[in-house]
Every structure is written in structure tokens, then in C-alpha cells.
Amino acid sequence: MMMNIFEGFGHVLYEVAVALVPLVIFFFFFQIFILKLPMKKVIDILKGIFLTYWGLAFFLQGVHIGFLPAGEAMGTILGQSEHLWSLIPIGFLLGFVATFAEPAVRILNHEVEKVSGGYIPQKIMLYTLSIGVAVSIALSMLRILLGIPLWYFIIPGYLLALLLIRFSSRTFTAIAFDSGGVATGPMTVTFIVAMAVGIASVIEGRDPLLDGFGMIALVALSPILSVLTLGLLYGRKEKENDRTFESDS
């Protein structure tokens, strides 16, 4: 059992090292010539890099032996269900939960709250992104069931995003496009995409390559739309507050 759990772990360690070594080299370059941080701070950073290395390695190993097989198995079972339309609410629920647990999303939300001085709370951002991704996963399930081409969603979605940019503030525009990137994190990619491929592989008339993939494109788009919509709501609230202030004065 132990050998099965750590099968291929050496290759994972190598991949993580290849990913982190350039960052470490850049850090030491800036430390020597520019930053010149105290030794205590450097030691703390090295401890963080050490924990990051092993954390990523164990996470990726867990993905290979757990998340991917589980997602494909769930997709295969759900795709053989008599009630295929239940995939839509199931997709919504899984999309919400996966985004809610996404580490990158929480980091972004924390930074947004910190930089905005609490004006944009973490909780509001978290629910906004989670609901947006949940809707995109539900639409992806609908796309698989009906065989709808991906561009039917992508082109109107980005046109709508461009329209929302016109009415949203620059702050929310920047946050929105960053949100699209962080939402496509390891939780979503490893589990839900594997499940979508499993579903598309067992539904008659569906091609796993054509119908199983493309979900990440929708996941990247949905937070942009949801955060821009949040920006519109904040803008309306600011205008109402300004009117109230003017009437009181």
C-alpha cells in the first residue's frame, strides 16, 4: 500500500524542484544586490520555501493518486445515470465547493481586502467567485448534455465582459481579470475537469476531447463577469450614498 501511495513520487519531487529553483535563484539575486534583508528574515523565507516544496509535492502526489481517479470515476458513474439533468445542479454544487476551498482564491481575497482597507471584504469576494464558478460548471454540464459548441458561451461571455467594463470601476476591472486566473486553480482543474472528461466519455454521442474539455475556459470567464457585476453593485451603492449625503447636507 505504501509503495502504491508513493508511486511516481520521485518524478513529482523533480517537477516541483524545477518549478521552484528559478524562483529561489531570483530571490537570492535580489537579496544579494537589492533587497539585503536581515539574516533572520532570509531564514524565515527559506523555511517557507522548504514547506512550499514539500506541500506542493504531497499535494500533486495526492492529485495523481486521488483526485484524478476519483473525478473520472464520479464522472463515469454520473454519466451513466438515468437522470442526466441532475448533472447541472451537481455541477453547480461541486463548482461552488471547489472554489470555496481553492487556496489561490483565498489568497487573492485576502490581498483585495487588505489593499482596499476592508472596502471589499474577503467573504463577499469569496461568495462572488464561488457562485460565478458554480454557474460556469453548471453551464459546462449543460454543454456536455446538449453538445453545445464552446464558442456559443465564450464569445457572448467576453462581449458581455467588455460591456460591463464600460460601466464598472477600474478597480473592479483589474480584480475581475485576476480572479479569472486564480479561479482555475488545482482544486478545479484536477477534480472537476477529470469528472467532466469521465462524463463525456460515457454519454452517447459525446467526444471527451471536444466536450470534456473547455470547462476551464468557462471557469476563467465566469469570475470576470461575477466580479464586474459586483463592481456595478458597489458603484450603485456609492451613488446612493452620495445622494444621501447631499440630501442630508
Describe the structure in your own words.
Pfam families: DUF1538. This is Membrane spanning protein. Keywords: Membrane, Transmembrane, Transmembrane helix. With 249 residues, this protein is mainly α. The protein has two domains: 1-77, no CATH class; 80-239, no CATH class. It contains eleven helices and no strands. It has helices spanning 2-5, 9-35, 39-79, 87-100, 103-115, 122-146, 151-167, 170-182, 186-202, 208-212, 215-248. Helix 6 (122-146) packs across helix 11 (215-248) and helix 7 runs parallel beside helix 11. The relative contact order is 0.12.
Short description:
This protein folds into 2 domains: 1-77, no CATH class; 80-239, no CATH class.
What's the overall average pLDDT, rounded? Answer: 88
Computed over alpha carbons, the radius of gyration is 22 Å
Name the shape in a single word.
flat
End-to-end gap: 73 Å
Please state the structural category: mainly alpha
Largest sheet: none
Helix content: over 70%
Order of helices and strands: HHHHHHHHHHH
How much of the sequence is in beta strands? under 5%
Segments where pLDDT lies below 50 for 5+ residues?
none
Protein name: Membrane spanning protein
Pfam families: DUF1538 (PF07556)
InterPro entries: UmpAB
Transmembrane segments: 12-37, 49-71, 83-103, 124-144, 150-168, 180-203, 215-235
